[in-house]
Structure formats: structure tokens, C-alpha cells
Design brief:
7-stranded mixed sheet; two-stranded antiparallel ribbon
Length: 458
């Protein structure tokens, strides 16, 4: 028997409590805590069509925008919306950590009957929440307001649609960038950014050797659906999960075995940094800024904060395309903003849509990219003078790279199994690379056994 996911268990428990409190029945509603909003929605929050906001209302937004530049931009956006929207809507933000923390908080909140109206959701959470009917369908609002879905970058719609519904809008999507110390590369006789993983590894090993084994050449944090996914994708064409989301052929086609062995050997030889057990991304960046690491791969969403810190520390920063086996390769990750229908009124959902629409305006999309590094999400924003002028400055070439990579970047399949498989693979990577208490062969064996319990095709 296949495992039941955590969300299903939480929902089952939540529904049991609700039915018991109501004395049984086929549907249940939860009173909204907002006295100014209308009655809470039931199983189909869009059944009566979209409403306009009719009275001042406050809604909450749970997010992962916790870095300095991200958080400052978010607060500025929310303040502008709160000050200018015609409906008296007030958005209040609550930081939850990383995207996976947002998902975990929502899962817990569903069981407790306390969820936000809006949330920035990862590729792990969207299919789970959408399949359980927790996310509001934005289609009626899109149609009512003439919002042009063809204007949304097609590569960013992988986690927008679920069956025949629009369940999210791309918000903090990003590719990855190779951030490197140009001076360290030059000192090792290297005059250009790498064009393949093999070349990157050669550079990294040379820098490590020339430094007397004190400066590691490259580092990756552990994120199976992002950093490791694109490296596997460059080997097998699909990444860590099959295109249909129903299996993981990487376990049997040799690609996972090769990657596990390679990554283990890179770290064993010393020139590839082993990620820290906690706050790995921050620790890796600090090593880079302190001159102990020559290059690392991180999201383009951190481009502004990394650039500013590098300038403060006197680092001659280079930003380049990410590379995989045999050539350029890039991941496509980040978050999409969704409206939580579960337990919320039509008025709250209508208010949330107004904020989503505001975030998708050309001005907001362009500013979000310029001030933080997240991808521009609409074609019309890319055509604005604001973005064209920004990209024309050679100092901002890394930002343009992040956008140019989109057409060739890859993301895991939209699947109900992504979240659980991600957790299992993360554990295997951690045991192998950080714990170093198993071999690549044992890590692969563990993954094969776990896949049998997760995927229906295994």
C-alpha cells in the first residue's frame, strides 16, 4: 500500500473534527474571524461567481521573503497597495521562513482551522493543496477582469494551472546563477566563466590546488527539486522525477547513480564544499564573502542581496549561466502566490485577487525583478523602458542572464508525489554528503526502496 501524504492525514483529521462539531452532513463551513466579511465559503468557493469587495477588509499573506532586499521590497509593495486600492483592503504579511516552511505552516493551519488568505507556495505544495480543493480557482476573476493569461511567461505557468483551474500566479520564480569571484579565477589563470560542468569542476579543482587546499572551488546547497534537479536533468533529460510525475526512472537509468558518485567524489577530493548542516545557504555565502569559496550556485532571486554584500566586502563578483553535464543547464524554481479558499469568505477571496492582480502589474513585476532579482513574470513587463534600461547597464548582466535562461530551464513535474519524494531524496543526499555515513551505492538502494512506497508506477 502506498503512503498517504501528510496533508491528506491533516485534512482527514480536520474534516472529522468539523463534521463531529456540526453533527454530520455532507458539507461544512467555518465561521470567518473577520466580522466585516461575509459567510465563509463551503466546498466550492466559486459556486456563485466572483464578487467585488464591498467593505474594508483585512487579509493575511504568508511568505518566504525573509532576506533583507526581499523583505524590504515586499513591505513597500504591500504599503503601496494598502494606500492606493479603492476597496479599503489591508494586506498583512507574516514571514514563515523558506517556501517549505510556508507549506508546513499551512498544513498545520488547516488542521487547526487557521490559514492565511494568500500564500507564496512552492512546487511541492501547489499540487497537494490544489488536489484537495484548498486553493481558490482564479479563473472567474481572470475572465471578469480581462486578465491576459497569454501575457504570463509560458515557462512560468507550470505551477499555475491544475486541471481546468488557475490556482496560482508566478511571483517569486527564479533560475539559478553561478556566482563567482573573478579575481580568484584570474589568479588561477582562468579568464572566462565555465560553459560546462566539466569545465567548472576543472576550474574548481585548480583553484583549490593553487590555494594550498584552503579555498574550495564550488559549492551547492541541498535542494533536490532545484540545484540537484537540474544537474540530473542534464544527464537524463527529466531530472529527479519523470515527466508524468508518477515515477523516478533516474534510479534505474544510471543517472542518479552517476550523480551520487560524482558529488560524493567532488566533496571527498575537497574542492567542492560540503553544505553546512543548518543555514547552509547563508553559511556558503559567508564563506564566499570571506574568500574561502571561489564560486557557488544560488537562486537569481538573491542577485541583489549577493551583489550588495559582495560590493561591501570588496569581492569582484561575476554572475554567469549555470552549467550541467556537457553544457548549460538551469533549474526553474521559486514560489507562486495562491489564494487559500479553505475557510475563507468570498469577500476575502475577492480581496486577495485584487492584491494578486496588483502584484502582476507591469510596474510591480519590473520593480520586483530590479530590486530583488526574481524573474519578470509577464511579457509586457519585459518590454517596459524600465527593464530595458536596467538590462542595458553592464553591471546588471546577471539579472538578464536569469531571464535568458528561462527558455532552457527545467522544473520538476507537477505531481502529487513531489513533496514526499523531495523529502526522501533530501534525506539521502544529506546522509551521503553531509553525514558521510553511507556510500553512493547505499544511498541509491535506499532511494529505490523508498520510491516503491511512494510512486504508483514503482
Amino acid at each position: 500500500m502506498k503512503r498517504r501524504n501528510t496533508l491528506a492525514l491533516l485534512l482527514a483529521g480536520s474534516m472529522s473534527l468539523t463534521l463531529a462539531a456540526c453533527g454530520g452532513g455532507n458539507t461544512a463551513s467555518t465561521p470567518t474571524p473577520d466580522a466585516q466579511s461575509s459567510a465563509a465559503v463551503s466546498e466550492n468557493p466559486q459556486s456563485e461567481g466572483p464578487e467585488q469587495v464591498t467593505a474594508p477588509i483585512t487579509i493575511t499573506f504568508w511568505h518566504d521573503r525573509t532576506s533583507d532586499t526581499d523583505y524590504e521590497f515586499l513591505k513597500k509593495s504591500i504599503q503601496e497597495f494598502n494606500d492606493t486600492n479603492e476597496y479599503g483592503i489591508t494586506v498583512e504579511e507574516v514571514a514563515q521562513g523558506y517556501l517549505d516552511d510556508v507549506q508546513a505552516a499551512i498544513e498545520t493551519g488547516i488542521a487547526a482551522g487557521e490559514t492565511p488568505v494568500l500564500a507564496d507556495l512552492s512546487c511541492n505544495g501547489i499540487p497537494l493543496f490544489a488536489s484537495e480543493g484548498i486553493l481558490a480557482d482564479m479563473t472567474p476573476y481572470v475572465e471578469r477582469d480581462g486578465f491576459d493569461m497569454d501575457n504570463v511567461l509560458k515557462e512560468l505557468t507550470d505551477y499555475v494551472y491544475y486541471e481546468d483551474q488557475i490556482v496560482a500566479m508566478p511571483y517569486t520564480r527564479g533560475t539559478a546563477i553561478l556566482y563567482y569571484n573573478k579575481d580568484l579565477y584570474a589568479q588561477a589563470g582562468l579568464d572566462h566563466a565555465p560553459t560546462t560542468l566539466e569545465e567548472l569542476n576543472e576550474y574548481a579543482a585548480k583553484i583549490y590546488e593553487n590555494s594550498g587546499n584552503t579555498i574550495r572551488g564550488i559549492g551547492y546547497t541541498i535542494e533536490p527539486t532545484y540545484y540537484q534537479h537540474y544537474l540530473l536533468e542534464s544527464l537524463n533529460g527529466v531530472g529527479f522525477m519523470d515527466a508524468d510525475g508518477l515515477g523516478a526512472s533516474c534510479l534505474t537509468d544510471g543517472s542518479m547513480s552517476q550523480f551520487l558518485t560524482d558529488w560524493y567524489n567532488w566533496t571527498e577530493e575537497g574542492w567542492c564544499e560540503i553544505p553546512a548542516l543548518s543555514s547552509a545557504s547563508s553559511a556558503m555565502q559567508e564563506n564566499f564573502f570571506n574568500g574561502q569559496l571561489a564560486a557557488f550556485v544560488s537562486s537569481s532571486n538573491r542577485a541583489t542581496s549577493i551583489s550588495q554584500k559582495a560590493a561591501e566586502m570588496g569581492i569582484n563578483l561575476g554572475m554567469s549561466y549555470t552549467v550541467g553535464y556537457g553544457g548549460y543547464a538551469a533549474p526553474l524554481g521559486g514560489g507562486s502566490v495562491g489564494i487559500i479558499a479553505e475557510g475563507h469568505s468570498q469577500q476575502e477571496i475577492a480581496a486577495a485577487w485584487e492584491f494578486v492582480k496588483f502584484l502582476m502589474s507591469d510596474e510591480q513585476v519590473a520593480a520586483n525583478h530590479i530590486e530583488t532579482g526574481v524573474l519578470p513574470t509577464t511579457y509586457s513587463s519585459v518590454e517596459t523602458d524600465t527593464l530595458k534600461d536596467f538590462w542595458a547597464d553592464p553591471a546588471n548582466e546577471g539579472y538578464k542572464i536569469s531571464y535568458e535562461q528561462v527558455k532552457d530551464a527545467s522544473a520538476p513535474a507537477m505531481s502529487l508525489y513531489t513533496s514526499e519524494w523531495n523529502s526522501v531524496v533530501r534525506t539521502a543526499y544529506s546522509d551521503l554528503i553531509q553525514g558521510r555515513d553511507i556510500t553512493p551505492e547505499q544511498a541509491l538502494e535506499n532511494l529505490v526502496n523508498e520510491a516503491k512506497a511512494i510512486f504508483p508506477a514503482a
